[in-house]
Write a structure and sequence with these properties.
With 659 residues, the protein is α+β, with helices and mostly antiparallel strands. Helix 5 packs across helix 6 (519-530).
Length: 659
């Protein structure tokens, strides 16, 4: 039964609270498989900890692996990823608090492997030939940050004890393990991967001012007789307009990677001639931009798969089409999909396998994020673990994919209509619109369950989740649209999207809001300077002064602003929201973390003061113990409530003024 329509859309009441929406913001981050079980990491906003879980088929049970006092999260490149590794003896992980590597035996407690407080570690690979670990090391020196590939002995307890006995007086060393440098000199490294025979090591590297999604290279070194590594050879990505990611060896020790040299991040493979050539397949991105380490979106399948012919070349692949994810067994020899898998899910990543199952982290438009085991013979799906969301299907707004024209280009968005089983729009009523802007800005939005979006649709808002030009998953050319056009191209897209939805009579033109976090906050602020279509805006730790950001930002993004805006001070100043305050008349609510090192609090405070001086209504909320990207559940819930209250007050004031 629908309630009598006493509340306008935007003020609908919901039993699904902001606290429940924040709780539904749990995340499953990474997945790996070993004979001991299926392992994944999961972040809980209530504790702000990331724990490692293990599922065992034999007992059909899940257990927490990480003990109290530890959290499995790397901060290499600030965005982390690839935070744990499975070895023959146990788990190696990056501990969030001190960023050191710890070894945890299958039945034991974590023991430190590194004690270099100035260093962080990620993307660890187990080297069985030398019983050591290969990892990315990030060293924070006085004036700079240095990255390198290193080798860390795993079984060094005896060696450490001997050193302690013979050097009892020498207690100045800060690390009990001998760390060997494999390669250094490049600005950045990613994805070190060993061949199955242990004789080759591949990795990705790139140099400033490039980003890993603009220009990166694939290299490979050979194991030498003394077990050290040779000088590396370039394998791919040497073209000026190409980036490479996710190197992987198959069982025949052939090297693969995803290379966008032909327009999409597609599969390339090493040939017997030594050349690196594309495998003709689906013309789509198999993955998004590598902001985090450790992604896996394809796997070579050995032997016969589903009765394929002997000359088949089957691979498990995931790819993006119109912003939606797909998963299948694909035969590159026949250039055809052999088996479509998990078709109900709309984003599939972190692929893994064993003899019986394919595994992945899967997301669905109307269900919580899940760990799937997919039978290799039948394709049947078993949900090993699924996050609770607290909403029934009748209360979940599912998105439709739409394209619209902006500045002569075709741009993509997802549209979520308001959805609350107790309410419906009257015949002449149009819902308020909230435009969501993803961060990055070289990132993307996906048609998956997002607790934040459902919070708004439950209350009668329509939400447009925009993949503006520059987003990933639509090919290199679409992604490159932001090159020196940030603050222009995506702002055009925001305004064009609003006009498109108004023209379609899908939303209330008087009640349009725009929100974004980080880079999305920057674009939201510029959108209200460019157009008077917006009733209100929200900036969550958004960039308001690119010049200030350039002075304090971390190494990974140190040259990103030059790529986005140009290197001249004039360009940075011209596209700074702080410089366009005079064009802003829209009320804004700001949320800022006190420990944010990317967008420091002072930057937001200056913007708030400038708007207030201009007479623009502003709310400002500082969270002293949050960083860049809020993680604590109580804060996430409070922000939703404050933002909703802010919009509702603005709507009421506008209605009173218009009356």
């Amino acid at each position: 039964m629908h309630k009598p329509h006493t509340e306008a859309a935007g003020a609908w009441r919901s039993d699904w609270s902001a606290a429940q929406a924040a709780a539904a913001g749990r995340e499953i981050n990474e997945l790996k498989v070993a004979p001991q079980g299926v392992f994944w990491t999961e972040t809980d906003p209530h504790t702000a900890r990331t724990l490692l879980y293990c599922y065992q088929h034999s007992s059909q049970s899940t257990a927490v692996v990480t003990p109290a006092g530890f959290s499995v999260r790397s901060r290499v490149y600030e965005y982390g990823g690839a935070s744990f590794c499975l070895t023959e003896q146990g788990v190696v992980f990056s501990n969030e608090a001190d960023q050191q590597l710890y070894f945890q035996a299958w039945q034991g407690a974590p023991q430190p492997l590194t004690q270099r407080p100035q260093c962080r570690y990620a993307d660890v690979q187990f080297d069985g030939l030398t019983q050591s670990l290969i990892a990315i090391e990030e060293e924070h020196q006085a004036q700079t940050v240095v990255h390198r590939l290193v080798s860390i002995p795993l079984n060094t307890q005896t060696q450490t004890q001997t050193q302690t006995q013979t050097q009892a007086q020498a207690q100045t060393s800060t690390t009990p393990h001998v760390i060997t440098v494999i390669n250094q000199g490049s600005d950045f490294y990613a994805a070190p991967r060993l061949s199955p025979d242990g004789q080759r090591l591949a990795w990705i590297e790139w140099q400033r001012p490039d980003q890993p999604w603009t220009h990166s290279r694939l290299l490979c070194a050979q194991r030498q007789a003394d077990l050290t590594w040779s000088l590396p050879m370039y394998m791919g990505g040497t073209e000026e307009e190409a980036s490479v990611q996710q190197p992987l060896f198959d069982a025949a020790n052939r090297l693969h990677a995803l290379n966008d040299q032909h327009g999409y991040w597609q599969l390339w493979r090493e040939q017997t001639s030594g050349c690196f050539e594309p495998l003709a397949g689906i013309a789509a991105d198999y993955t998004g931009a590598p902001w985090q380490l450790g992604g896996c979106n394809y796997l070579a399948l050995e032997g016969l798969q589903g009765g394929l012919a002997l000359n088949s070349e089957p691979y498990l692949i995931s790819w993006l089409q119109d912003g939606r994810g797909h998963l299948a067994v694909y035969d590159f020899a026949q250039q055809r999909i052999v088996q479509t898998l998990a078709a109900d899910y709309s984003r599939l990543r972190h692929l893994a396998l064993d003899e019986q199952f394919f595994y992945c982290i899967a997301e669905h438009a109307a269900q919580g994020r899940a760990v799937l085991a997919i039978a290799r013979d039948s394709g049947s799906v078993q949900v090993l673990h699924q996050l609770e969301i607290g909403l029934t299907a009748a209360d979940i707004s599912t998105p439709c994919s739409l394209y619209f024209d902006s500045a002569g280009q075709r741009v993509h968005s997802f549209f979520y209509p308001p959805c609350n089983r107790h309410y419906r729009l009257t015949a002449d009523e149009r819902p308020p619109l909230l435009v969501f802007l993803h961060g990055g800005p070289t990132s993307a939005c996906y048609p998956v369950f997002d607790a934040r979006i459902q919070f708004w649709t439950q209350r009668g808002f329509a939400v447009a989740d925009l993949n503006y030009r520059g987003s990933t998953g639509f090919g290199r050319a679409y992604r490159q649209h932001l090159h020196q056009q940030w603050g222009v191209a995506e702002v055009e897209d925001i305004c064009a999207l609003v006009q498109h939805l108004i023209a379609q009579d899908a939303v209330d033109p008087k009640h349009v809001c725009v929100r974004g976090a980080s880079a999305g906050g920057y674009s939201a602020l510029l959108a209200i300077a460019a157009s008077d279509d917006f009733a209100a805006a929200a900036s969550l730790y958004g960039v308001s002064d690119p010049q200030a950001l350039r002075q304090v930002t971390h190494k990974f993004e140190a040259d990103y602003l030059d790529w986005l805006l140009g290197s001249s001070d004039a360009e940075l100043q011209a596209r700074a929201p702080l410089e366009q305050v005079a064009q802003m008349h829209t009320p804004v609510i700001f949320f800022q973390g006190g420990r944010d090192v990317v967008v420091v609090p002072e930057q937001t405070q200056v913007m708030v003061a400038a708007l207030r001086e201009q007479g623009v209504p502003v709310d400002y909320h500082l969270y002293p113990d949050e960083g860049h990207g809020f993680r604590q559940a109580q804060h996430l819930a409070e922000i939703l409530e404050l933002e909703l209250g802010f919009y509702q007050r603005v709507f009421e004031q506008r209605s009173t003024h218009l009356a």
